[in-house]
Design a protein that fits this description.
Blueprint: E1 3-9, H1 16-26, E2 32-37, H2 44-56, E3 59-63, H3 72-84, E4 92-96, H4 104-109, E5 119-129, H5 130-134, H6 155-168, E6 172-176, H7 183-196, E7 202-205, H8 274-280, E8 285-292, H9 298-311, E9 314-321, E10 330-335, E11 338-343, E12 353-360, H10 364-375
Parallel strand pairs: 1-4, 1-5, 2-3, 2-4, 5-6, 6-7
Antiparallel strand pairs: 8-12, 9-10, 9-12, 10-11
Helix pairs in contact: 1-2, 9-10
Amino acid sequence: MKIPVTIVTGFLGSGKTTLISGLLRKNPSRRLAVLVNEFGEVSVDGALLRVAGEECGVEIHDLPNGCICCTIKDDFLPTMGQLQKRKQEIDHVLIETSGLALPTPVMRALAWPEVRNDFQLDAVLAVVDTPQLLAGNLDKGKPISGAGDAGIPEHVNSVDLILNQQLENADVVVLNKIDELEEDQLLEAEGIVREKAAKVRFLELAYHAELDTRLCMGLSLHDKPEVVEHDHDHDHHGTVQLAPLDVDNPLADQHQFDGHSHTGLASHEHGEDTHLHFHEHDPGWQSFVLHSSQPQDPEKLKAAVKEVSIDQPVLRAKGFASIEGKNHRLVVQAVRNRVQTYFEEAPSHDQESQLVFIGYHCRRDRTAELVNKLTGTVWT
């Protein structure tokens, strides 16, 4: 019997990790394996999931190289190979993609000869930050705070492009962070999603980032997998392959499916490393980490992260901070200028503070300058 696989996608800060943490705690008797892919040097999401996983014996695997699209051969397949050797011990696999990745390469990889006899795609979930969606912050034409007049080319298209493709390939869209929203706002959000991705099968609501397991696992929505003939060295996940999987006749204008169009690069077939080029060599999506060995003041740090998001085009910040007199690290989670902090459940002996910043044309030197000034500590 094949092991079902659920792919969890969603733009930066949508709440994927929190949602998965809830699923782990709700299913202590189900033998789960979780693959976590992050765009950043530090595995913040992986560390948070390990806390939840340790409570119920869930194994967590980090895919550390930023975009899962680029590391199918080097990271994803070897990890799946490890799971294959112990397939009798695993009931379900959850794969969390980074906020800048598309689910399509993983969907197709699950149909490759190496894994298709042991794994079966169950469903693709796209998690949406509903307040950000309603505010228009995820739409084309909405400026990114901090971009100013820096001459950032088509930066707003990048957000819209990634989100739309995540939604188009989803079976289930989860409207997350809806706790303070009224019914008319939820209906508006549903309308926006339906307009962006009319073929989504199910639309679900997640209060307090909690989702009923029956709505996202064991759905068996892909019982007849597509058999993909492929060449690992020339796998294609551009133009046509970024379209919904059931498109029979590609659009004449494939601009919206071109993962490179906003960078000035032409649409083209490319190898697995080209999407890495999209992130690293296009001076667009960037990620960097700041470190500090000094204890932090929670309120000053929170204010500093918020100020950075106003000054710089930072869309996501996350990390851990050491607080004087506390045995538990402070967790920092920020989406644009909305910053939340809370203490980890388990104590930690790690005294170093680490903050990951992800944005479009954001400057590391300016970010470090602001954090140093506003916290009164040294960050490098």
